[in-house]
Amino acid sequence: MSNQIVKFGLVGIGNIGQVHLKYLSEMANVEIVGVCDVDQEKADQHAKTFGTEAYYTASDLFAQSGLDVVIIAVPHYDHPVIAIEAFEHGIHVMCEKPIAVHVNDANRMIAAYEAAKLTYPNLQFAIMFQERTLPFYAKLKDMVASGMLGQLTRATWIHTKWFRSQTYYNSGGWRATWAGEGGGILTNQCPHTLDMYQWVFGMPSLISGHAHIGKYHDIEVEDEVTAYFEHENGMIGHLIVTTAELPGTNRLEIVGDNGKLILENGKLLHYQYPESMLTFTRETEQQFVTWEIEPVEIAVDTTVPNGHPVVTRRLIDRLIGKTVDLIAEGPEGIGALTLANGIMLSSFENRPIAVPIDGDAFQAHLDEKIKTSSFVKKVNQSSVSALDMSASYGTTK
């Protein structure tokens, strides 16, 4: 990069797009060279605010702004379209979650990236999984990876701190529709949770999902989901999520042969077993046993930098020549999406789904949902203005 300055362009000036613009404007080594939105008034307004140029199509941004990196923050279906065009121009990509709506599109996106690297060997593709940087999640990941729990037997995640009101769903015509968003809580709120699950535990081999469509909101997509995962190593997983619960819960239990971790309410507790649970189960002559174990609260430094700026900073550092790992390489986005699609495919077909899933089967269901939809979306234009997004970010509390 010339003079160690990375030139950024943004496509999509919605709520999260505005978050990106704010921190980018305060970052070293960064110049915002263009903002793009189909809403020309919005593009003009934010170009003026951030001292840059307005564009109304991604193609014009790519052709005229001189950008090095594009942040893609548009509705989900357009992630692959814009990313593939960027790759073809040798432009680095930071994509908002999810990588795509369905795995077929994600695979096309990844294939386009790999093909473009033949021409542009240093091309970078990152995905915005900022929850990997949250201190409690990062600590939990390290502890599980260390093997201290031994053979994992169960992971249960109740994550219902995703409350969304009807007003939220009415704030955009694309929200909570099959054609506009491609799904509900799994597509919009839970990509981070699904990514964290596969990041920590790996991908399951079998998925069973139960999704309830518009159970608590006037929407045509899922707002409550329960899923069950089976892993090849014998571990089972549970996921319970909804956008209709107040106050919500965020509790993750991880059980292993040598101990248990519980993360809830800003505390990470470690239960150290006195001996192997599985060996004890096989060999003890006792019929009824309770281990009285006092948990140890694990110290976690919550002051470390985290969130969106950390993810973007890693990409910037790599582009200016530093040897660093990205928080999440773009192709890693296929994991969370496979879980989301697999859960919905299982629910649609009322049967367990093997992983890797049949992308064509899921896409066929999605296409049929779009084709046969008779849902009339209510949109309240007064609620479409910029929102404080902080309450929507993942938290371990």
From TrEMBL:
One of its GO terms (molecular function) is nucleotide binding. This is Oxidoreductase. InterPro entries: Gfo/Idh/MocA-like_OxRdtase_N, Gfo/Idh/MocA_Oxidoreductase, GFO_IDH_MocA-like_dom, NAD(P)-bd_dom_sf. Pfam families: GFO_IDH_MocA, GFO_IDH_MocA_C3. Residues 7-118 form the Gfo/Idh/MocA-like oxidoreductase N-terminal domain. Residues 137-261 form the GFO/IDH/MocA-like oxidoreductase domain. SUPFAM superfamilies: Glyceraldehyde-3-phosphate dehydrogenase-like, C-terminal domain, NAD(P)-binding Rossmann-fold domains.
